[in-house]
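In response to the reviewer comment on reproducibility (Comment 2.3), we provide here a single inverse folding case reported in full, input and output, so that an independent group could reproduce the run without further information from us. The C-alpha cells appear first.
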C-alpha cells in the first residue's frame, strides 16, 4: 500500500477515487508521565515519553486508515493529513491522533 501526503503518486495514474478513509487512535497518559513532562516544560528539554506516545498514536491511526483503504480495494492512500488533539486535563489526559486520506486505485 502506497501512503503519501501528496495528491498523486509519481509515475502512476489514479484510475478511481474510492473515498475518504480515516484512522483514529486515542492514547492514555499517566500521572507520572504528566508530572515529569510538566517538570521538563519548566526546566526545558524534550519529553521522550510524550514523543514516544505521539509516535505510537500516529502509527496506530495510519494503520487503521490503511486497513480501511484495503477493505475498499485501494492501491494507495493520497492526500494524507495528520491531526493531533489533547483531550481532558488535570491528571486525565488523552492524546488523539487522526489520519485522513483518499483511497485510490492506480493504473
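Designed residues, in position order:
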Amino acid at each position: 500500500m502506497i501512503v503519501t501526503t501528496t495528491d498523486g503518486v509519481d509515475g502512476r495514474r489514479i484510475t478511481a477515487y474510492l473515498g475518504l478513509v480515516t484512522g483514529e487512535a486515542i492514547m492514555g497518559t499517566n500521572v507520572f508521565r504528566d508530572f515529569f513532562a510538566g517538570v521538563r516544560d519548566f526546566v526545558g528539554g524534550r519529553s521522550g515519553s510524550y514523543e514516544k506516545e505521539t509516535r505510537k498514536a500516529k502509527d496506530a491511526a495510519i494503520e487503521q486508515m490503511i486497513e480501511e483503504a484495503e477493505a475498499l480495494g485501494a492501491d494507495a492512500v493520497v492526500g494524507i493529513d495528520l491531526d493531533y488533539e489533547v483531550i481532558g486535563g488535570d491528571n486525565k489526559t488523552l492524546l488523539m491522533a487522526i489520519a485522513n486520506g483518499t483511497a485510490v486505485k492506480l493504473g
